[in-house]
Structures are given as C-alpha cells and as structure tokens.
Amino acid sequence: MRRNGVVVRVPGKVNLQLSVGPLDSDGYHEVTTVFQAISIYDDVTVKFAEPGSGITLDISGSTSHGVPLDETNLAYRAAQLMIDRHDLDSDISIHIKKEIPVAGGMAGGSADAAAVIVAFDALYELGMSRDGMEKIGAELGSDVPFAITGGIAIGRGHGDHLTPVLACGSYNWVLAMAPQGLSTQSVYNECDRLRTGLDIARPQVGDQILQALRAGDAELVGKSLSNDLQSAACSLRPALRLVLDVGIDYGALGAVVSGSGPTVAFLVADEERALDLTVALSASGVVAGVIRATGPTFGARVIETL
Ligand code: ATP
C-alpha cells in the first residue's frame, strides 16, 4: 500500500572548527570545517496532496517566525528539485515544525532541505544512496549534505565534501541565541574587509581537535574550538564578545560562534554545568534565549510513516 506521507527529523549543527581560505576568483571562499550534529531538531512532514494543488508549505514551532513560506524556502526548493530531477507527481504538502534557530549559524534552512530530500526518497521509494542524496543536496547549499549525514564530519570545498571523523563520547552544549540573526553573506563580507592586505593561507583543520575527538576528550575539544568568522561576527555584533566572556567565566570548556553566528556555542563538562551556565546566561541579560543540546546525533531520518 502506498504511503500517504512521512515525517523526517533533522538536526542543527555546530562548527567545532571553521577555517576560511582567501576569497576565490569566483567570489567564494574555500572552507575546511568540523561539523557536529546536535540534538535540536526540525520535524518535516511531506504528504501527497490533492491533484492540482502543487507544492504547499506551512510552518509552526518555536522558531518559525519570519521564515519565508514561498518558493525561496529551502524546503520548497528541495521539493521542486526532487520533482524535476525524478519526474515526480508535484502535488505535495510540506509542514515544518521548526525548533532550529533561524539565521543563527546552525544551518536550519539547509536542514529542512535535507529533510525534504530524505522524505521524497522514502515517499516515492526512490532507493537513492546516501551519496546520491548528498550530491543533490549540495546543489541547494553547502551545509545540506552534512544535515543528511549527521554525526561528526570534516567538510571541505565549500563545506560539502564530507569525510566522517572517528570519534567517541557525547558532548554537552549550551547555545546562546541572539535577539536578531546575522546574514551569512554579510559576515563573509566583513571577514574579507578585516583581512584586507593580509596573506591568507589555505583552510585546514588542526590535528589537535581530531585527536581530541578520537579520544573523546571534551576538555581538549573545548580548547580546540575555533572559527575564522568569529571576529567578523563580533565586529558586526560587539555584544557577542560579552556573551563569550560570560560562558568562559562560568567554566565552559570552550566557546565559539557557530558558523556565521550569531549563536554562540559553549561546550560544558556535564549536564549540571550546562544547567548552571543556562541560568547564568539567562540572568546576564546579554542573550535572547538559551538552549541545551547534546551531540553528536543522527542525520535526517524518517521517524514516522503516515
Ligand atoms: P547557515 O549557517 O547555513 O549559513 P543559518 O543557520 O545562519 O544558515 P538559516 O536558519 O538556514 O540560517 O536561514 C537563513 C535565511 O534563509 C533565513 O533568514 C530565511 O530567510 C531563509 N530560509 C529559507 N528557507 C528556510 C528554512 N526552511 N528555514 C529557515 N530559514 C530559511
């Protein structure tokens, strides 16, 4: 019997390291990054709809405010791409239950695109390989393949060429949300401005973080967190420096702006420290919200068949 729909759960991510190379002639930056998928999820439901209805999209959830509902939404674009590429019936409804912060450097839009690809594969029984899904995902955005894979991986190129990382242990995160998002493009532009006149090396990931992940050594992972976009994000949002300081003062093992920010990710030793830091950050008045999460977690996967 044909399925009526599927629900796919997809995680957000933090970048444990983000190394950004010089601006290429094509206007892009080569990056090398270590991604970790964390336990903040969007649930994306894709269902067959009435003939002639086309693609319809609606959103609920705690972070749904301001997300576009038209064909610029990455979930919509993923659906259109799958329909075109596989010559599929185009009457589909998509519902996103959104918990991943928007424009927070946690790749929430990319996550929704990844979820739609996985949902279409299941709904139409396309039998795609993970590699095939990642390739089509990369056409939509460089963070989409990782949202399909999950776990911990190194991303090269524009971040979309993935190599899994051998790792053990579970990591406790406290995420400090800013009152307003930052556009990824503006952060890269600011990074280029701050680097004017400097000789920038090709991007690379340090050995120390890979050793730390292999050993499950959270303290060393904390010391190895880094992000070449952090000074640009802090330059555009000076309040982020205060947020980083509060976390370190309250004993975080490490602190980093996630991706292009403005979310700040703090690695802490255990759940108790996570609670302490949550209270301290909430009381500090410098953040708009605080979320606790653990990582690594799985990539986009079907959690319910309708
Ligand atoms: P990244 O770290 O990949 O640069 P981000 O986490 O900073 O991304 P997103 O939450 O992916 O940012 O959203 C960036 C912008 O993309 C939003 O401001 C919104 O206008 C648009 N957008 C399109 N589709 C989505 C979606 N499904 N969810 C959230 N934002 C979306």
Key traits:
306 residues; alpha+beta; Ribosomal Protein S5, domain 2; Alpha-Beta Plaits; 8-stranded mixed beta sheet; 4-stranded antiparallel beta sheet; 10 helices; 12 strands; 34% helix; 29% strand; globular
Structure description:
This protein is an alpha+beta fold and 306 residues long. The protein has two domains: 171 residues, Ribosomal Protein S5, domain 2, CATH 3.30.230; 125 residues, GHMP kinase, C-terminal domain (Alpha-Beta Plaits, 2-Layer Sandwich). The chain has ten helices and twelve strands. The strands form two sheets. Strands 1, 2, 3, 4, 5, 6, 8 and 12 form an eight-stranded mixed sheet that branches. A hairpin with a 6-residue loop joins strand 9 and strand 10. Helix 1 runs parallel beside helix 2 and helix 6 packs antiparallel against helix 7. The termini are close together. The site of adenosine-5'-triphosphate has 20 residues, from helix 1 and helix 2.
Q: What's the pLDDT, averaged over the residues? A: 95
Terminal CA distance: 11 Å
Question: Which ions, cofactors or small ligands are bound in this entry?
Answer: adenosine-5'-triphosphate
How many distinct folded domains?
A: 2
SSE string: EEEHEHHHEEEHHHEHHEEHEE
Give me the secondary-structure topology.
Blueprint (H helix, E strand, L loop, with lengths): L4 E19 L5 E20 L6 E6 L13 H13 L5 E6 L10 H16 L6 H9 L5 H6 L2 E5 L4 E4 L6 E7 L6 H11 L12 H9 L2 H7 L1 E2 L2 H7 L2 H11 L4 E4 L6 E5 L2 H14 L4 E7 L5 E5 L1
Parallel strand pairs: 1-8, 3-4
Antiparallel strand pairs: 1-2, 1-12, 2-4, 2-5, 5-6, 7-10, 7-11, 9-10
Helix pairs in contact: 1-2, 2-3, 5-8, 6-7
